[in-house]
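User: Predict the complex.
Assistant: Input components as received:
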Amino acid sequence: MGQRTDVPPISWLMHKALSRPKLISLAAGFTDNSTLPVEISRKLLNDILRSSKTGQPALQYGVTAGAENLRQLTAKHLQKLDGGHDRAHSPEHVIITGGSQQLLYMTLEALCDEGDIVLVEDPTYFVFLSILQSRDIKARGVKLERDGVDLVHLEYVLERLKKSGDLHRVKALYLVTYFQNPTGATTSLAKKSAALKLLKKYERAAGHSIYLLEDAAYRELRFDHGADVPTALTLPGAKDRVIYTGTYSKPYAPGTRVGFGILPEPLFTTVERIKGNHDFGTANLLQQLVARALATGLYDRHVAKVQNNYARKARVMKSALAEHFPASVEIWESGGGLYFWARLPKGISAGMKSCVFQTALKNDVLYVPGELCYADDPSRAKPDNEMRISFGSANEENIRKGIERLGKVLKKSI
Amino acid sequence: MGQRTDVPPISWLMHKALSRPKLISLAAGFTDNSTLPVEISRKLLNDILRSSKTGQPALQYGVTAGAENLRQLTAKHLQKLDGGHDRAHSPEHVIITGGSQQLLYMTLEALCDEGDIVLVEDPTYFVFLSILQSRDIKARGVKLERDGVDLVHLEYVLERLKKSGDLHRVKALYLVTYFQNPTGATTSLAKKSAALKLLKKYERAAGHSIYLLEDAAYRELRFDHGADVPTALTLPGAKDRVIYTGTYSKPYAPGTRVGFGILPEPLFTTVERIKGNHDFGTANLLQQLVARALATGLYDRHVAKVQNNYARKARVMKSALAEHFPASVEIWESGGGLYFWARLPKGISAGMKSCVFQTALKNDVLYVPGELCYADDPSRAKPDNEMRISFGSANEENIRKGIERLGKVLKKSI
């Protein structure tokens, strides 16, 4: 009866972390406590609540799709990230949600029936897999390269689904396009474009639209301040086929849980109605906090500070990896986000039950086994020789110590 | 494909309200702007964000089930409302959600498959009906009396479902037990107890548990400060069968969207996992705001003020109703909440397409047609001669004017 939601392995990891006080967690995707905008938020909330004119609306119900000012500021913010491009960044298609997570959940509710199929990167964001599992939606993995999905493999997967008669169940391709969780990979615009064309090509055989669901949760956590890869929304033909989701949660503060989506019609209206049934709309007070941060420029200033902090911690982790990890471990380095991705030589398992993981735990260091980030896809075996290593929440000293401990474990095991 | 969510009629009503600036809305279930805790919230947020020790955790991710302090304060708060009773008010079974609405949504996800049946009051909270419709869950109406469901009719409905072979699809009875939306009715403890026993009696034939889902969203909006009816949680045998949901949104501030549920195992764990997939947990900053309001006693002081305000506005509406409404209209008066319920003589429609509704709209006054609050239940016709009239958001002058306008329309129609 009802949902059969499995125990998320991540709960187990978190529990482990809490039960060993000396443990250094390189597992959590938490952001860094020291960079949280405590002072800025206090100032902004004071400004909002100083007068009843702005205070009362902030404490009242709002509109389901989100506060008008935040929807407009969000569209403008994305236009800026996309170098001024404005084709698909209309405030009318912006919906404000409880983090981007809630947008992902509601989009799947709007798009998929039980037994439907969503194509995902191999590996991908494991909570997305958990949503799919809970809703009896199947995932099919597409190989991931350092600049995005392997296009040849994507076409191969689509072709196989066509031949097996399952193409009519395929509703979307889910891509985490910036500093991906877990690998750190960023999808090039050329790959976004080619993937979109491929999906389009198979729509006739599918009998319906196949959407590109672009998850840009880590987009603003970039280390340099250079040019950003534009979103798939900017591509020709994207208007009716690209769903974009982003968040203010990670770059600003997770404790505010404000994210957003941009959706084409008729999906936008369906998701808006689902949002009405979930919660009528995201807490107005938080929306006003984020809106004011954006409007005053304090958001941008804060994000620059956050970026510098993660860039520094990534450099610390990089040099520790170079010093302590065996040379046979392949490291994927990222230009942003919170993670390094490490691939052990074939045959060496880093999975939950592996000697590497258990020994690491005994030595008080925790990582996320890569196998957790692979879909249950019967058409291929799950690689188990990878690890996601995060520099998000640990401080510099613990990053160094943690990598040293992990390196010792690996040197004994490889 | 995916969810087929109908246009909620309430959106249409809201839209109407916005498009006629002179309109007096007695439709909205909004709370009163003038009572919103602007100054209190400013003080509390300042206190939280003054030091990084409390400010950082408030801006960081929390735990999915909710902040430990708020879960404990919530259990304690309910114990107090229930006159010290503590049997079923354990913090371990409290989950904090985005308003009580999100708890209702997730509970239905956890409990029901497509085609399942939930028994509801006739009439009931219309957004609950909208959730059921969007998830292809059927509703069966049980007659409502001024002190709760008609027990004879409840047994009749269960018996009929048993005979038609549909009892195995019945998962819950949904009751809005305090100052019900839309009628203002409060369910007596005797009726809660009898209903629980009746559900239990049919469990064997159903082949599974049938839950009593108690929605106490309006509980704290009582006009007197007298003794509260205890929740069904306090009844013997309730521990494994009662799901309770409440909210801080209405008594404190809707813009904070913090509600909660108390659920028995294994439902609690399922809902907690669903919550993890929805959004990882409600925004920590808002949880800390509510927790501090509760802990400092400012919450209680604020709620007393809100209660006095609504009590006064209810008195204003009551005397306006006595003055302007035809004597043939039956009025249900409530001891709390935001609504009066008016029943026109049989044969006079108050529905969306009725002359009464259209004339009222032309005369710039809006109410919620009672028919919207009835489930699509093929086993009975929907009454259409009722109206929900709210004193929630209008000020005293507009309450008087609105009722006067409505009275004139009714006098012409009856």
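The mean pLDDT of chain A is 94.
Let me know if you want any component modeled separately.
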